[in-house]
Each structure stands twice: as C-alpha cells, then as structure tokens.
C-alpha cells in the first residue's frame, strides 16, 4: 500500500494517524479488501511508536472500518458514508403543535472586547482544587457498588447545597428538599412538565429572560409579560388567571434592580390561597456589592408556594451543567418522577467532585475570590462608563456580573456597530417580548480582562458616536 499520511494538525500521534486514515477512506485512497501494512512496518515508515499504530488499527476495527484476520493481517472492511452536497428531503419534522423558537446560549466567537453578559471565564476556575476534587470523586466512584445514582441527586452534594444556601442566602432547607439539575434551565423544564397544561397563563417579567418564556411556551402556556419598575415586578398587574409566576427578585434580569421587601410580601400575599406557583430564579445572587445580600424570596415562603432555582454557572462555569432547585413539598414526588423520565439523573462524577469542593472549603474560598475580583471589575467599569454621560445612563444595580446601559438617544444598526468595533454585548431589545422597551445594552464583566475595560468602553463610545 502506498499512501501519504502526513500526521499534521493537533492532537496526539494516534489521533492524527486516525484522522489521516479516516480521510484516506473517505477520499477513496483505501479500497475495501485492501491489506494495511503491518503495524511494525507502518510505524517504522512514519517514524512513530508501534503502539500508536496498534491503537489506531484497533480503533478502526472497533468502528467497523478495518477487520483483523488472524494470521493474514489487517484489511479495509468498508468505507465511511460519502457526504455529498446534493439536496435531500428533510424527512419527518416536528408536530403541528411545535412553534419554532430561537436557540439561546450557542457558543459565540469572542470579539476583541468581551462584554458578554451572564458568562464567566473558565480560566478563573480553581483548577488545582477542582483536579483534587475530581480525583477524589474518581476514587469514590471506583469503590461505589450501587447500581446507579439517585434521581434527585447525589446526597453529599444536596447536603452541601443545603448548608451553602443556609449561610449565603438565608435559606434553611433540608437535603431532601433539594434536587440537582443539569443547569437552571432543566429546572424550568421539569416545572413546566408538572405544572403547565395547554392554555395555562404564566406571568413573566417584562423585560425578562427569553429562554424562560420559550420553555413555558413550548409546553403550551400563554405567557403574559408583567412590567417591572424600580421596586421590581408590578404585582398589581399580574393576571388573576396566572397559574405560575416567574421572577428574578435578587437581581432583575436584565435591568438589575432587586425586588423590595414590600413587593416580595405583596407577591406572596397575591398567591396565598390560590393554586399558583412562584418560580424564583436566583441566577447570580451570590455577587452583591452594595450592602448585605437580600435573603431569598423562598425564605419568606410559609405556604410552600415558591420553588427556588439556583445554578453553579456563575460561581464556577456553565459548562459544568450543574444547578439545583428547592422544591415545595407538594411538588417533590412529581418532580422526581419527571426527572426520572428525562435524563434519570445528573452525572454522578461531577456531582461528587462538586460535593468534595464544597466539603473541603475550596468552593467558599473561590467564591470569596470571585466576589473580590468582580467588585474590582465592576468599579472600573462604572468609572469608565461615567466618562460618557452624554451617550448613556447606567441603571442602578447592586448585584450580579452585568450592568445595564440606557441610551440617551436611539442608535441604529446597533449589532453592526458592535461587530465593527469588536465588542460582545447584548442589545436590550432582545429581552423585550415587544418592540417597545428600554433602548440600551447589557454589559457583562465576567469575561473581560481588567486591562481591557477602559479601552473597551472607549471603543464602545466611538462605535455609538459614529
């Protein structure tokens, strides 16, 4: 066999050899029935270890492309399917009930100035502590003889979450009230499964978090936007027919104001005696910079009508896909059943690793570090933004890892301006269900490096002034 295998690109030698052989198969340079060189001979020809060739051959045999014949060698068994550019029929599509919805959260290429909101930098993860926690979890998994993990989540993590919420959010709860989810979005999905019937009215903040609206709508809910003011949700405008109310009381998304105690009590009074569930999404309540953290709305709930959603996406990173919810007693059985019908359980290894991180105190140390870092970035960003009061008004915010700018005058072709200036930031218009609403930007400081803040704000000012 005479074939060129350059072994170029990234990855280990076996990975590069595998890619080259797959490409040779796809391009027809290897034919079915053709005999491959012996592993020793190919290794010598390419100047690599024989084991790399053996491992690659075994992988392609396992995938069915090669076959090993005892005493005869290794042969091409079949070729991978050829992908052509021809148009094909789309096939079966979704049911008539399904309404196409936007996709939220796809990975976006970073621009020069990354003011993306709601995201954190994986470089800030406590890698040494996390590696130690994962290695300990691997050892624990190797000794574990149970058949499968718990649907509600690993008990050690649920106990850690219970303890954490008690001291950080003033929210006493038992481990059996906690359910571990794959992010807060799964919590919304599970709640929708067990609470929403087609046509049910769900009240959400306007402006608000679009994916929450879309999840509720995907289950047939009639979603009604309720205005917010400087005190939070305008409770007197919540529809009487609402069966679920979604709120972000610690740090309204995206405008940033916390819900006052008066409004919280008014909201709890509104639902009392009705079959109404309040969904409290505390998406970044750990980061409060002016005054003591407000206690969770759930901590005021005396009638089991509030479910509390939390996530480790902001403190650690969204790629971990670990969140949790504190369930009202009346929903616990139904939510466990719904979880078992979706993914069964969150990955046990990551749960145990996070439980170890909390137990060893590394999580609390990391949180304190992040609070100091974000406090510093927030102050630098506020000072930089204050230099251009002619362009924007920075709305008052006391928590979270983003700020909200209200434009002094309308700005056309905003996305094109941001792209031209190399800036990641979110247009506030995307958080409104209607075209009317606050004109401005959501500016995050979870990803941008400290030294880029001032120069990034100046680039933004130039882009808006052009």
TrEMBL record:
Presence of keyword Phosphoprotein: no
Keywords tagged on the record: Aminotransferase, DNA-binding, Pyridoxal phosphate, Transcription, Transcription regulation, Transferase
Signal peptide from the UniProt entry: none
Domain of life from the UniProt record: Bacteria
An example Gene Ontology molecular-function term: DNA binding
Residue ranges occupied by any HTH gntR-type domain in the UniProt entry: 11-79
UniProt cross-references to Pfam families, sorted A to Z: Aminotran_1_2, GntR
InterPro entries noted in UniProt: Aminotransferase_I/II_large (IPR004839), HTH_trans_reg/aminotransferase (IPR051446), PyrdxlP-dep_Trfase (IPR015424), PyrdxlP-dep_Trfase_major (IPR015421), Tscrpt_reg_HTH_GntR (IPR000524), WH-like_DNA-bd_sf (IPR036388), WH_DNA-bd_sf (IPR036390)
UniProt name for this protein: Aminotransferase, classes I and II superfamily
Family the entry assigns: In the C-terminal section; belongs to the class-I pyridoxal-phosphate-dependent aminotransferase family.
């Amino acid at each position: 066999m005479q074939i060129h295998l350059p072994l170029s690109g990234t990855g280990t030698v076996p990975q590069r050899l595998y890619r080259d052989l797959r490409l040779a198969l796809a391009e027809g340079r290897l034919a079915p029935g053709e005999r491959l060189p012996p592993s020793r001979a190919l290794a010598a020809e390419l100047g690599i270890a024989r084991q790399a060739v053996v491992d690659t051959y075994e992988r392609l045999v396992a995938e069915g492309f090669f076959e090993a014949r005892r005493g005869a060698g290794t042969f091409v068994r079949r070729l991978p399917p050829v992908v052509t550019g021809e148009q094909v029929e789309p096939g079966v599509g979704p049911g008539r009930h399904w309404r196409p919805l936007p996709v939220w959260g796809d990975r976006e290429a970073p621009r020069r100035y990354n003011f993306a909101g709601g995201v954190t930098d994986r470089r800030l993860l406590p890698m040494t502590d996390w590696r130690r926690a994962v290695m300990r979890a691997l050892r624990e998994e190797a000794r574990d003889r149970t058949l499968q993990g718990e649907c509600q989540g690993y008990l050690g993590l649920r106990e850690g979450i219970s303890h954490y919420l008690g001291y950080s959010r003033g929210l006493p709860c038992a481990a059996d009230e906690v359910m571990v989810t794959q992010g807060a979005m799964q919590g919304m999905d599970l709640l929708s499964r067990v609470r929403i019937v087609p046509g049910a009215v769900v009240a959400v903040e306007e402006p608000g978090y679009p994916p929450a609206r879309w999840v509720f709508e995907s289950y047939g809910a009639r979603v009604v936007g309720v205005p917010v003011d400087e005190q939070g949700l305008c409770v007197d405008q919540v529809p009487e027919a609402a069966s679920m109310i979604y709120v972000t009381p610690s740090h309204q998304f995206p405008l940033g104001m916390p819900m006052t105690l008066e409004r919280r009590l008014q909201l709890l009074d509104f639902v009392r005696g009705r079959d109404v569930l309040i969904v409290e999404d505390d998406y970044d309540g750990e980061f409060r910079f002016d005054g003591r953290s407000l206690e969770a709305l759930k901590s005021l709930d005396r009638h089991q009508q509030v479910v509390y959603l939390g996530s480790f996406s902001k403190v650690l990173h969204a790629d971990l896909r670990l969140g949790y919810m504190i369930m009202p007693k009346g929903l616990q059985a139904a939510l466990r059943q719904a979880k078992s019908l979706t993914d069964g359980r969150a990955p046990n290894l990551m749960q145990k690793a996070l439980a170890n991180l909390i137990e060893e105190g590394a999580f609390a140390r990391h949180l304190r570090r992040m609070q100091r870092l974000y406090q510093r970035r927030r102050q630098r960003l506020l000072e930089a933004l204050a230099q251009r009061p002619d362009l924007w008004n920075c709305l008052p915010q006391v928590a979270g890892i983003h700020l909200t700018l209200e434009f002094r005058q309308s700005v056309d072709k905003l996305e094109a301006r941001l792209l031209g200036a190399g800036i990641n930031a979110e247009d506030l218009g995307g958080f409104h269900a209607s075209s009317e609403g606050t004109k401005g930007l959501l500016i995050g400081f979870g990803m941008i490096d400290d030294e880029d803040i001032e120069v990034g704000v100046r680039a933004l000012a130039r882009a808006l002034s052009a």
